Amino acid sequence: MKKSNQTLYSVIGASSLGTLIEWYDFYIFGSLSKTISDKFFPSANPTAAFLSTLATFAAGFIVRPFGALVFGRLGDLLGRKYTFLVTLVIMGGSTFCIGLIPGYETFKAAPIVILLLRLLQGLALGGEYGGAATYVAEHAPENRRGYFTSWIQTTATLGLFVSLAVILCCQTMLGKDAFNDWGWRIPFLLSIVLVGVSVVIRLKMHESPLFTQLKAEGKVSKNPLKESFGHKANLKMVLLALFGATMGQGVVWYTGQFYAQTFLLNTCAIDATQVNTWIGIALLLGTPFFVVFGALSDKIGRKTIMLAGMLIAIVSYRAIFSQFYSYADLSKKTEVTALLSYSKTETMGDAGERTVHSTTLHTYTDSSKYAETVTQTFTVKNGAEQAGIAKTAKSVTLSSSYAPKVVGLMFLLVLFVTMVYGPIAAFLVELFPTHIRYTSMSLPYHIGNGVFGGLVPFIGVLLYEYSKTPAAPQGDILAGLWYPIGVAALCFVIGLLYVSTRQPKHS
Predict the structure, then answer these.
(1) 319 Cβ partners below 8 Å, 6+ apart?
(2) pTM recorded for the entire structure
(3) CATH architecture of 8-330+400-498
(4) Phi first, then psi: what are they for 362, rounded to 5°?
(5) What is the dihedral of CA 303, 296, 81, 429, to 10 degrees?
(6) What is the per-residue pLDDT for 45?
(7) Each residue of 109-118: pLDDT tens digit?
(8) Nearest to 88 by CA among 51, 128, 37
(9) Would you kindly state where each structural domain of the chain is located, as residue ranges?
(10) Mapping DSSP to helix (H, G, I), strand (E, B) and coil, where does residue 153 land?
(11) What are the C-alpha distances in Å from 367 to residues 256, 339, 402?
(12) Is 461:480 a contact under the CB 8 Å cutoff?
């Protein structure tokens, strides 16, 4: 087993901790997308504001390939360790700054600044993953690469889990009103502490032994970009990695963990605390399977497991999401009219404005509840009170009996993710030679995940909104699934036909 002064497990631990923190930073934005849309975008059109937030969220994914090119080149020229140390600092600093930005009402440039910081996050993540996966793979024995690199794969899901856990803790300790007012900033500000700890740990790490040997022999690539994409044989492998593996893996990952959350929160209008709690449980249950499928790929091959995950996802998505919607479908529930209640509260602002909250609460025979709150602010101008735009918030709180059902279906979605994502790091590492590995593997990974995968929530919501017509105002609730299903199906066919079962295994 190849190793420096550190044990292989300390290498995995140090690499994984930093990568987990970067994923936490990157995904805290998505986990709080509804809050961000309320705080940083004009409130006149809530749907447009939410789509703008998802577009900003997606922008971080779209620039990830550029980060892969910039930092991948540096990683192949200067080394793995210091390159992904720099990306960690950029990511943490950007996340921290998001927590400091004033809201749109007092800072009209907020949407632009948020976008710029999101782009920095995307660039940083574009350099982080390839470095961490390459670093671990170059320490691991060849016959166990799938197992050891799969620990890095767990960090993406664990980063999302940690982001949800931090949000739930803040909501519980502060209360929903305080959290929505100012407490939502805490998860962003916390990033600077987590990054500081990880930087200290990573500074103590040694360079990858394979890269150190390469450097000592004077075989470091002089132009990683040209060698990665200018040589026909290597470019072919880059394209096969993208269209035969990472493209489908990306949409399965983001459908199972992000579009599912968006669907439950917005299309189904289920209470945010319930959604985040149930998804968090499913993530925790599913995470060990990254390692299971990573280790299995050492025995039966990476391609078989990844393509099986894509195929099962393709044929299962519509049934699973239909079931989600049926749980929150009020037309299928019987209301207990005797329990109908109505409440109204008023608050006065510092500038004399009056905000009225009117809530109607419906209760159903299965113990589910539906709350509809209309919020309207009245201001005084020229001695007369003027009403602002009324905002309506709808929320379905399901009976606890639905918890195992939702968690079970979410677990299946996460299981599909572990099948396609667990073996992918070892798959990519083995495609490319050491001297251009960081650059070559990072680009297809971040195009597949950052562009094809990252656009899933935005395109999914957009397709759903476009499916609404005057004749069918509810629209096709499953319209958003056609994008990930189509992309995964195309990738499955290309991978099945053109990706070799036995990959070249570079040292």
Answers:
(1) none
(2) 0.80
(3) Up-down Bundle (1.20)
(4) -105, 140
(5) -20
(6) 65
(7) 888 888 888 8
(8) 128
(9) 8-330+400-498, 337-397
(10) helix
(11) 28, 11, 10
(12) yes
